[in-house]
Design brief:
alpha/beta; SDR_fam; oxidoreductase
Length: 263
């Protein structure tokens, strides 16, 4: 039985949903935060069916300060202040820099970077107040460390690079409080976000292309599964990683370990 309430942003789909359900399977109290209220409700219901002791869906736009503050207040009232938080909500918009609309750039940064800050700020405020320590995990990306071969990835890469820098700084600030701050770095994972921005009619063809590329470019020869990333996140959130903070746990099938030069 998990002793903490686990709060997850972006819990309505993909990696966020997988983490929520993995925590639920351990008997945790869980809070499913998502901008899509229906998706949050569906995830919370699935969490209860998998064994969560309690589950609450909360509508939350992580790019909005009032929305995040209200969401954490709602979580506290329903299932208690979370001792484990996964700041995961994110979006991806791709375009070459010379044609990237500033509104799109600002939206990516608002969700991916400001959203992580706001989520962590509300979590950390409560963790410091209770004085009982805790664990926060943020979702970074290989794009924070290496260029994206598909191109047009500048806004997403910049936002995730900011997340990684934020994690290192926050980890040092909150270590004296017994609060650990880490990042997970998922590689190409088989979720809807993998084909974000692709025309709906081309989704199947694009996913087939990505899977084919993964076979040849990713050392393990396949896309990652959301449950595989969830296992890494659950380890970071749990006391099993009690001496780990300021770290990046890479879960990418070996992609970042591979040289771009194949001799």
């Amino acid at each position: 039985m998990w002793a903490e309430t686990v709060a997850v942003t972006g819990a309505g789909s993909g990696i966020g949903r997988a983490v929520l359900l993995a925590a639920a399977a351990r008997g945790a109290r869980v809070a499913a935060l998502d901008v899509d209220e229906a998706a949050a409700s569906a995830a919370a219901l699935a969490a209860l069916e998998l064994g969560a002791s309690e589950a609450v869906p909360v509508a939350c736009d992580v790019s909005s300060e009032p929305s995040v503050v209200t969401a954490f207040d709602a979580v506290a009232a329903a299932v208690g202040d979370p001792g484990a938080v996964f700041a995961n909500a994110g979006i991806e918009v791709n375009a070459p820099v010379h044609s990237f609309p500033v509104s799109s750039w600002e939206r990516v940064v608002a969700v991916n970077l400001v959203g992580v800050f706001l989520t962590c700020r509300e979590a950390l405020r409560r963790l410091v107040a209770t004085g009982r320590g805790g664990s926060v995990v943020c979702t970074s990306s290989p794009a924070a460390f290496v260029g994206h071969s598909g191109g047009g990835n500048s806004a997403y890469a910049a936002s995730k690079g900011g997340v990684s820098a934020f994690v290192r700084s926050a980890a040092l600030d909150y270590a004296p409080h017994g609060i650990r701050v880490n990042a997970v770095v998922p590689g190409a994972t088989d979720t809807a976000m993998l084909t974000a921005g692709v025309a709906s009619g081309a989704r199947d063809a694009e996913l087939d292309r990505i899977r084919a590329a993964a076979t040849t470019q990713i050392p393990l020869g396949r896309l990652g599964r959301p449950d595989e990333v969830a296992a890494a996140v659950l380890w970071l959130l749990s006391e099993e990683s009690s001496y780990v903070t300021g770290s990046h746990l890479v879960c990418d099938g070996g992609l970042m370990a591979k040289s771009a030069n194949d001799f």
